[in-house]
Design brief:
- It contains twelve helices and nine strands.
- It is α/β, with parallel strands linked by helices.
- The strands form three sheets. A four-stranded mixed β-sheet has the order 4-5-7-6, with helices on both faces. The chain has a three-stranded parallel β-sheet with strand order 8-1-9. It has a two-stranded parallel ribbon with strand order 2-3.
- Helix 2 packs parallel to helix 10 and helix 8 runs parallel beside helix 10.
- The longest helix is centred in the N-terminal third of the chain and has 28 residues.
- It is globular.
- The N terminus is likely disordered.
Length: about 325
Amino acid sequence: MRKRSKILLVATLFIGFLSFKGEAQNTVKKGYWPNGARLVVSVSMQFETGGQPEGAESPFSGNPLPKGTPDLPAESWFRYGATEGVYRMLDLWDKHNIKVTSHVVGEAARKYPEVAKAIADRGHEIAAHGIAWDDQWNLSYKEELKFVKDGVDLVESITGQRAVGYNCNWLRRSVNTLKVLQELDFLYHIDDISRDEPFISMVRNKKFVVMPYTLRNNDIVNIAGKNWSPDQFLYQLKAEFDQLYEEAGKKRRMMSVSLHDRIGGSPAVVKVVDEFIEYAKKYGGVVFMRKDDIAKMVKDDSNTPVDNSEINYNK
């Protein structure tokens, strides 16, 4: 009886192993991405320090100083991104061997060229964020073209990378922005929160990739704007991941995470993002990717949806 019990136990374990192995394989095979992944995660690391205008939103915005008076503590808060935040996040990406997309403000790169170079030298995507951290929804076509091009040219001269992805200040683009970006040979933009997967928008009858952005998994909206604690941010990231991973068995899903130099680069936030990455890596078929690589992969994929909701603006 004892021998028979051992045989049954071994058989049960073997069957369980085969079942687990099959499930693990299915996890990857059920992916709806061209690379076979089940869920793609993309991190944005915004480098804005030094590009902010006078009176830019900060922890001190509730008690503004008279115009023309330097807000020294606010300026020091922004400087934190260049002196501490970006480097701490770069070390985190190195630890996990993942690459991110960094939207770089032109003036930030001008004032801190060593930071912009460090981002590029470690293999991360240099994307565009305008010449300065300023509005462009109120610019004429010609003015907006110059605003974008000046930033791209400046950052390229410092990093050696020419941006193909774009992010407007607070996502507020103009009705001409996509046409401007198309004229400057951009591949994609991220100023859209209408989907949880990349899609195509037709701009003057040509394909233009729209990469989903996030206000949910976003440090500046949550931690800075609502005084969330890092542990709440970690719960948000895990909950979003769990739901998207489940949905990814039936359709293409992408998770976006947005971190800003002066906020996401703080010790506590880096710590919880580290925990989130460790959590996500335990699941099969999860891939961390730069946005330019994702956009290239999906642009000509027949499974990528075409959404012409803004066709009136893109003609």
